[in-house]
Amino acid sequence: MRKVLIVGATSAIAQATARLLAAKGDHLFLAGRAAERLEMVRQDLAVRGAASVGVFTIDANDRARHEALLNAAEQAMGGLDTVLIAHGSLPDQRSCETSVEQTLAAIETNALSVITLATLIANRFEACRAGTIAVISSVAGDRGRKSNYVYGASKGMVSLFLQGLRNRLAAVGVQVLTIKPGFVDTPMTAAIPKGGPLWAKPDTIAADILAAIEKKRDVVYLPWFWWGIMLIIRLIPERIFKRLSL
Ligand SMILES: NC(=O)c1ccc[n+]([C@@H]2O[C@H](COP(=O)([O-])OP(=O)(O)OC[C@H]3O[C@@H](n4cnc5c(N)ncnc54)[C@H](OP(=O)(O)O)[C@@H]3O)[C@@H](O)[C@H]2O)c1
Prior knowledge:
Elements: E1 3-7, H1 12-23, E2 27-32, H2 35-46, E3 52-57, H3 66-77, E4 82-85, H4 93-97, H5 100-128, E5 132-136, H6 149-169, E6 175-181, E7 183-184, E8 199-200, H7 202-214, E9 219-222, H8 226-235, H9 238-241
Parallel strand pairs: 1-2, 1-4, 2-3, 4-5, 5-6, 6-9, 7-8
Helix pairs in contact: 1-2, 1-7, 5-6
The chain binds NADP nicotinamide-adenine-dinucleotide phosphate.
């Protein structure tokens, strides 16, 4: 029975994952900034078999409260062995281009808050030589593109940070899982026209996240075929790539 903290627990992907964890009888502790929706998620998970479900209202950008969040999670569940960091925001790329403020806000939410949390959790898990840190990054972090490079740069920073963290924590048996979804049909992508084989549902991604945690994977592209797509995208020479509209 795991003791799982989920940050950004109102996210569609996080909720779908939490439902699977609840069905397994895990203890859950949910963190998010929208208290009312957090409570609705809590109630839903409580009837799906979770051993316990706690909540903690926090804006992930409030980094000064991250330690308090971890303490609360540990206290509520009698320990902590798994963390899923799921929060994120997709900024309007064009607005970011004319607003340093919006650019930095996106980096704050998607990268700095995640790195702060991961650092604090890593130190706790390193001390007890066990644990899983699973973070939702994105395929967007694999290569900068004009259509979303502010978001992509934030996710790229997270992916690289996690790579180093994994290298550090491998010696003590702590799993650091980088999750790189492609296109997922969630509120985050509500404004984007959907359809076609590249779009996945949160339930599909959630099942793959749980499998990746249980198989102690390091990096997963979700669904799996994004591994091949991103391999090709990364291999395109820069002199050609810079002229493409992707
Ligand atoms: N959807 C995709 O195509 C896709 C692809 C690759 C990666 N991802 C990543 O997957 C993760 C989950 O996103 P999703 O697709 O499930 O979208 P979502 O349902 O829109 O979830 C995003 C979540 O992030 C939370 N959040 C944003 N800023 C926050 C802050 N400052 N403090 C606390 N919570 C904050 C939101 O909280 P509120 O509910 O309060 O707004 C929401 O719960 C994100 O990291 C996203 O970048 C998504």
